[in-house]
Amino acid sequence: MSLPSASNVVLASTVVGAVYFAYRAITRTPSPGHLPPGPKPLPFLGNALQMPTSNHPQTFREWASVYGDIVYVRIFGQPMVIIDSLQAARDLLDKRSSIYSDRPRFVLFSELMGWHSASTHVRYGPRFRKHRRFINQMFNSRAVSAFLPLQQKERLTVMEGLLVSPEAFLDHFRRCAAATILKITYGHEVHSVDDQFIHLAERAATLTVQSGSPAATLVDFFPALRHIPTWAPFVSFKKQALETREAVNAMMAVPYELVKSEMKTGVAIPSYTSSLLESRANPLDGSVLPEDEEDIRGSAGTLYAAAEETTLAYLHTFVLAMVLHPEVLKKAQAEMDRVVGNHRLPTMEDQESLPYFECVLKEVLRWNPVVPLGMPHRLMEDDYYRDFVIPKNSTVLVNIYSILQDCANSDKFYPERYLEDESLPDPKNIIFGFGRRICPGRFLADSTVFLTLAALTALFDISPACDSEGNPTMPEIEYAVGFVSHPKHFNCSIKPRSESVLSLIKDSKLEHPSVQ
């Protein structure tokens, strides 16, 4: 989440008379009751100038240490609540999900960019429930087992790629994440990281992050700004949003239209999109209602974009953690060798027999949660919690990063903490969100990550890259944070643990013909 500088706030506010609207919002009759504590606001602007321009989770965590686990701020009259404890998140977003399952208005993204069809941005109601039914049919805990052959194929492709060009490990991960969800969502086969659809998603994701976070941009607090022409001063956000709109629309429309075209010629591969189009088609002429088409296209595009970006960040963070903590990798490899041996690759059936490796995966999520602030919720009516009121229309954020830091020696990467303290919450039950907005693709994500990283651990050693004199160079722990928290670029060494790795991969292909 990012806000403009103080000078830009004042200038932009002057352009549209925003102070007037802020004044009206602030001086209206407030809801009765005691508001949660928070930083002292300024007249008109509220807490806008106190909002951080970077490292938001850490700033919000510092606020929580002063004001408590429910922090209240106002930005140009718009109320925002930041939740900093797992108990409060579950009490409100899980137990009272019927009133916390809406999304904020996202003026910039919804009205200007046309994201109203994306399932994560659909307002809570009948249409949202229809989207969830679409997705749950294919991605519930039982249904995802049908994707195991595909996941096995893609992880073998990653392992082969690491043998040939280990320095391009991030490209191999990107191709794997994209290939898995593209095949499932559109039936599209990916053969390299240069695939057109991968480029479409990467461009849309990059521009979206650069545009700022929904419910945090200036136009979300002053909707009148969306009417200013692009040539006016101080509205670079709108020019950037128009560019982002084109990228997002292309990401959603191009693969969708390809599926429709292939269905007409009878060559479409069964997929999420083709199955939904078939189920919604008029039996007389094969047509699909425009509103159904919009929902199918939007939910498919959202699945694709969300799955690729978060999976890539998780895999990337794992490698960084192993480079920095070789003792953890060695311990995980020793467990892998005892349970799996060196004649096959680990499978989902091995998951329960690899408790330390599971703790490593949990610690990776705790150390750098891929979506540190989750996606914002919107409160649909006044709510009363503890001894205060949370006003209707509040934007509600959960500081997932801070919640996962609530443990002993939180700065230390220490997987054993989950073996030594059973009371610690499983990060997998936190990072996917809460209530009726919990990520529907979480079961697919969990199995994809496990299979890929278990094979990587079993087959390869990961260590720091060396400089020109042969000395190891340790990477810095730095993240590029937008919606998704990615490690910044670093170099490392990835080498096969033995000369038998190639033959083991080939044997695995022969044993599983379905992954050819």
From TrEMBL:
Q: Which residues form a coiled coil?
A: none
Q: Which cofactor does it need?
A: heme
> Part of which pathway?
Secondary metabolite biosynthesis
Going by the entry's taxonomy, the superkingdom of the source organism is recorded as Eukaryota
Keyword annotations from UniProtKB, A to Z? Heme, Iron, Metal-binding, Monooxygenase, Oxidoreductase
Task: Give the molecular function GO annotations.
Answer: heme binding; iron ion binding; monooxygenase activity; oxidoreductase activity, acting on paired donors, with incorporation or reduction of molecular oxygen
Question: What are the binding positions for heme in this chain?
Answer: C439
Q: Which InterPro entries match?
A: Cyt_P450 (IPR001128), Cyt_P450_CS (IPR017972), Cyt_P450_E_grp-I (IPR002401), Cyt_P450_sf (IPR036396), Cytochrome_P450_fung (IPR050364)
**CDD domains per UniProt:** CYP64-like
Q: Which family does it belong to?
A: Belongs to the cytochrome P450 family.
PANTHER family the UniProt entry points to: P450, PUTATIVE (EUROFUNG)-RELATED, P450, PUTATIVE (EUROFUNG)-RELATED-RELATED
Q: Tell me what this protein is called.
A: Cytochrome P450
Query: Can you name the source organism?
Result: Ephemerocybe angulata
